[in-house]
Write a structure and sequence with these properties.
The chain is α/β, with parallel strands linked by helices. The protein contains 17 helices and 8 strands. It folds into 3 domains: about 20-75; about 135-315, Rossmann fold; about 340-500, no CATH class. It has helices spanning about 15-50, 55-80, 80-90, 95-110, 115-130, 145-150, 195-210, 220-230, 250-265, 305-310, 315-365, 380-390, 395-415, 415-430, 435-465, 470-480, 485-500; strands at about 135-140, 170-175, 180-185, 210-215, 240, 270-275, 280-285, 290-300. One of its GO terms (cellular component) is cytosol. Keywords: Coiled coil, Membrane, Transmembrane, Transmembrane helix. GO terms for molecular function: GTP binding.
């Protein structure tokens, strides 16, 4: 058996020397460049000083103009585009007046913004009332209503043993150990089958509250974890209440609370173990052998939750108001923006239909078989401007002209496709097949114009700017598979125009 000779350790000194040499060379190069730059500047200064004044001043002006021009060019190249500016403005938090103005504008545009207006009215009403609102939030059957009854013992709270029985928002008055009053809200539970509308009611009410008690009866599921962290993101006091603690043994209770504390101590103000009481069902065997179904009340134990509520609301409703208002305004802001997109899509549809009709009517007066279908002129320019105004996007004349020229070339290249679609339209509608080439080209022109309008509207809504590449792709998709209602609408305009001529 051969002896194994251990490898000799390699010295790391040569690598260190190599790195030191590289750094030294780099330092010398930098020093040399700096000396050369300073030397060049000094030579340039001496030469300028020796020049006559008549030559010195023009050279200084030319150099200053060149530097200024380079600075302007760099600013134009590096500044964000109009779409990026618009998106960055959207992410900035808006104040109460700005959001109220947007909601009022939506009402003027015949949008269904009544719920948003009521949300702002309720926001002001609660602020003026001075009451401190606490929302009891969580999934169905976790004991929320029983907990509300335990916290608001002087109020009448309807409890049912069937899960998910709370259908609407209910407010009750509770009293803390220091005799302060709280408005406690019982809400529909999340996670109920076909309960999306009630769940949204609960979420909205949780945002309106000054503090939230999130109720669970075991370790949190993935959905509950996401919901809890969503609530914590608004910065208002959040208490995690582990209910039905009497169902767990001592070791299991300690282990569960430790796990919850490790995961959620950073996002909650307190984690408490409680027993909300409520009704419990069990079966009892009688002496004669029969089985009796018994419903009885469990004694509540919510002292730790009362203490936590007393602590998180000690500063009063006025101190907690900024976080509550920010949560409500954030919700109204998101909902109003979504509604604005719906309204913009509806108004864009109306504009595209109106200008398509005008384009078809104008084309029938001059169209001839074999003429090119080119989207250009005052109608297209006006349509683009109106669509940009609806989407609140500023556009320049040169941008509109360049876009329409490019789209005109795109439409010209797909003329055969458009004409084929128009020919199919003539065959699909009895009586149109005998109208001749003029009707054919009018329908084709209308479909092309309609596609351009819809493609521009789609691009503005998605990218918040005039994107020629995206618009061309949208046009190709719209022309490749035109919907039947679009063909019928354009053909209807042609028929109506011909009837008026007759």
């Amino acid at each position: 058996m051969q002896a194994r000779i251990p490898a000799m350790p390699q010295s790391r000194l040569p690598m260190r020397y190599l790195l030191l040499a590289v750094l030294a060379i780099a330092a010398l190069i930098v020093i040399g460049l700096a000396i050369g730059l300073v030397n060049s500047l000094l030579e340039f200064y001496e030469r300028m000083a020796n020049l006559p004044l008549l030559l010195r001043v023009p050279l200084i002006v030319v150099a200053a103009a060149a530097v200024l021009g380079l600075a302007l060019l760099a600013w134009k190249l590096l500044r964000p585009g109009p779409g990026a500016n618009r998106r960055s403005q959207k992410t900035e938090p808006l104040d109460r007046e700005a959001i109220a103005t947007r909601v009022a504008e939506l009402r003027q545009r015949e949008a269904e913004a009544e719920s948003l207006e009521q949300e702002l009215i309720e926001l002001d009403r609660r602020r003026l009332s001075g009451d401190c609102h606490v929302a009891v939030f969580g999934e169905i059957s976790t004991g929320k209503s029983s907990l509300v009854r335990a916290l608001a013992a002087d109020s009448v709270v309807d409890i049912d043993v069937v899960g998910g029985t709370t259908r609407w928002i209910r407010h009750y008055t509770g009293t803390l150990p220091d005799d302060r009053k709280l408005v406690i809200t019982d809400m529909p539970g999340s996670g109920e089958v076909d309960g999306a509308q009630r769940e949204q009611l609960a979420r909205d009410e949780a945002l309106r509250a000054h503090a939230v008690v999130y109720v669970v009866d075991s370790d949190l599921t993935r959905a509950q974890d996401a919901e809890l962290r969503w609530l914590a993101g608004f910065g208002k006091p959040l208490i995690l209440a582990l209910n039905k603690i009497d169902r767990f043994g001592l070791d299991e209770r300690i282990s569960l609370l430790a796990a919850l504390g490790e995961r959620y101590a950073a996002v909650t103000r307190a984690i408490v173990a409680i027993s909300a009481g409520g009704k419990e069902n069990f079966q009892r065997k009688l002496a004669d052998g029969s089985i009796e179904r018994v419903v009885r009340e469990r004694k509540p134990d919510v002292g730790s939750l009362r203490d936590a509520l007393m602590e998180v609301t000690a500063a009063g409703a006025e101190a907690l108001e900024p976080a509550r208002e920010a949560a409500v305004l954030s919700s109204v802001d998101q909902r109003s923006r979504a509604l604005a997109r719906i309204v913009a899509a509806r108004e864009s549809e109306t504009i595209v239909q109106r200008y398509t009709r005008r384009a078809v009517v104008g084309a029938m007066a001059a169209v001839a078989p074999g003429s090119d279908i080119i989207i250009q002129g005052a109608l297209a320019t006006a349509m683009v401007r109106e669509l940009a105004r609806i989407h609140e996007i500023p556009v320049r004349d040169i941008d509109v002209e360049n876009l329409l020229k490019r789209l005109g070339l795109s439409i010209r290249n797909t003329t055969a496709i458009v004409l084929a679609i128009a020919g199919n339209a003539l065959k699909a509608f009895p009586g149109l097949g005998t109208l001749g080439g003029g009707a054919l080209h009018a329908i084709a022109y209308g479909l092309a114009f309609d596609s351009v309008g819809r493609a521009i509207a789609m691009t503005l809504a998605e990218h918040a700017r005039l994107d020629a590449d995206e618009t061309e792709r949208n046009i190709r998709d719209l022309l490749a598979k035109p919907s039947r209602d679009r063909i019928e609408r354009v053909a209807g305009v042609v028929v109506d125009r011909l009837r008026r001529k007759d």
